[in-house]
Amino acid sequence: MKISASAFIGLSAVLHHLHFSAVAGQAIDKNGSSSFSNDSPVVAPTFAPVVNNTEPDAGDVGFTNSSASNPDVGDENPSGFHASEPPSYLVEHTDAMMGLCPPRFLDSSVIKNRAIPTNNWWGNIIAHDSNAAIQPIWSNPYSLQMVVDKAPFGMSVSYPYRSRFSGGSSGNNGAVKFYAHGMVREFVFSAEEIVWQKPNFQVVDWADQGVTVKFTAGSSSGTMVSDLVSGMVYSSMKYSGLTPRLVSSAAISTINGQPMGGQVRGSKFEIVYNSGQKWVVYALSSDGRSEKEITLTADGNSALKSTGVFDGILRVAMVLESSWLTTLDEHKSCIVQAANIDLHDDSSYAFKWKTTGDCSCGLLHYAMKHHTETIDKSSGVRQMDGMVAYSTTRGAYQAFTTPGGSADPVWEIKEAQQVPEDFYPSRKIASTMAQQQRILDHLREDINAGWSIPLDGSYYFNGKAAQKYASLCLIANDPAIVGGDKSLLNSCLNKLRGVMAPFVANSWTNKLQYDKIYG
């Protein structure tokens, strides 16, 4: 059972230092609640011992499934943080989610061998859905959609910010009530072998930042593989044994300045739609290290198809300003595949990018606003002034380049602003205000009242109750409220131990379980 941690935020503030070696005893009433009164005895809970002080073999906990298109990213455990499977004698293991909402489009070898993410930006790809269509995902500034429900099949790339619309009145100083974005398949990677024949589609790998998807033709062994990374400037597709087909949402006006029609050969194609959109397509070798020419033929007014099978990489990038082209040309061969996060301490971390191709000129990648403000530029990371795109909900994305020469570029992030390590607000209540509002009297009444958390209650509402009780203990520890008197705090902590002991012992009716499918 996957439980939201947010329900226990307030509780965690107290439980962080709340020792259960001497847990207040709890009484179970006829309604099946853990309750506590000031007369309840103090007893020690019984927990299963750790056998021989051992933990499960880390080798049995999981593995990183590497594919040729997306190798392991950096060290296996770069930040020093590690979480092992809890032993089954402490918490029951379950794979029941396979019956309730099994993940879609995953290689069977991955299931139960890696914790499948449930809150990643690309989660729509694998989310259980009664609809055949895969909902869009947002790498930002691009929106991407795996089109596998009906022809024409392939992967679409769009810039949703330009289709933003808004309406209504919020009544707040003229602010709109809502805004949304259209889902337009502005550019589609496909192939002649799959465009009209449903391909096999799978997620084959992922990292902290990035996911690898694979399309396989039903009529051959040909494949299309793409590494999708949050903030990527280019969207890339590696073709093996397939005939590329590129489809637009609007009529194509010109290619490399020439009217649409006939054939065009090269390794770079500047494509302008009659809507005014401009995209640039690059053709590279399979390893991404060199340009590779391809011949494209117009097929109608909104599609280009290769004259033959192509083994190599096609990359596309939107061009919002013509001045971007020089920068896009320079960095076209440095292909981002994924990134892992390396946590240094509580104020610094790093994005360790995994790339392929030729990164002698550095990696070109978009950064979110808070990254823009905190990237350490002393290592040679440069902001590309004037190259800004907009996400759907996260504001402006600023392009940066890393120093050339490294196949594994890094963004070092250093937070300049201190994050307060306190469970109290930065502006605490003044003692005079506390006296005026009789907070101490109300606090005493609440602490001395009967406390109860139903054993068969939902984790959501039980969490709210626990948060309320834990918050009382925090208030009872505030000198502005109680002065130096700790008697209320001690009473509060004893009662909190009592009502929470069944949770700590995992003896609620709906016990916590360790999910072996999702992470």
From TrEMBL:
Catalysed transformations (reactions): Hydrolysis of (1->3)-beta-D-glucosidic linkages in (1->3)-beta-D-glucans
Glycosyl hydrolase family 81 N-terminal domain span: 112-402
Protein EC: 3.2.1.39
UniProt cross-references to Gene3D superfamilies, sorted A to Z: glycoside hydrolase family 81 endo-[beta] glucanase, Golgi alpha-mannosidase II, domain 4
Biological process annotations from GO: cell wall organization; polysaccharide catabolic process
Signal peptide stretch: 1-25
GO MF annotations, alphabetized: endo-1,3(4)-beta-glucanase activity; glucan endo-1,3-beta-D-glucosidase activity
Keywords from the UniProt entry: Carbohydrate metabolism, Cell wall biogenesis/degradation, Glycosidase, Hydrolase, Polysaccharide degradation, Signal
Region (Disordered): 47-86
Protein origin, superkingdom: Eukaryota
Domain Glycosyl hydrolase family 81 C-terminal span(s) in chain numbering: 434-519
Statement: the UniProt record of this protein carries the keyword Hydrolase: yes
InterPro entries linked: Endo-beta-glucanase (IPR005200), GH81_C (IPR040720), GH81_N (IPR040451)
Membership in a protein family: Belongs to the glycosyl hydrolase 81 family.
Protein's name according to its UniProt entry: glucan endo-1,3-beta-D-glucosidase
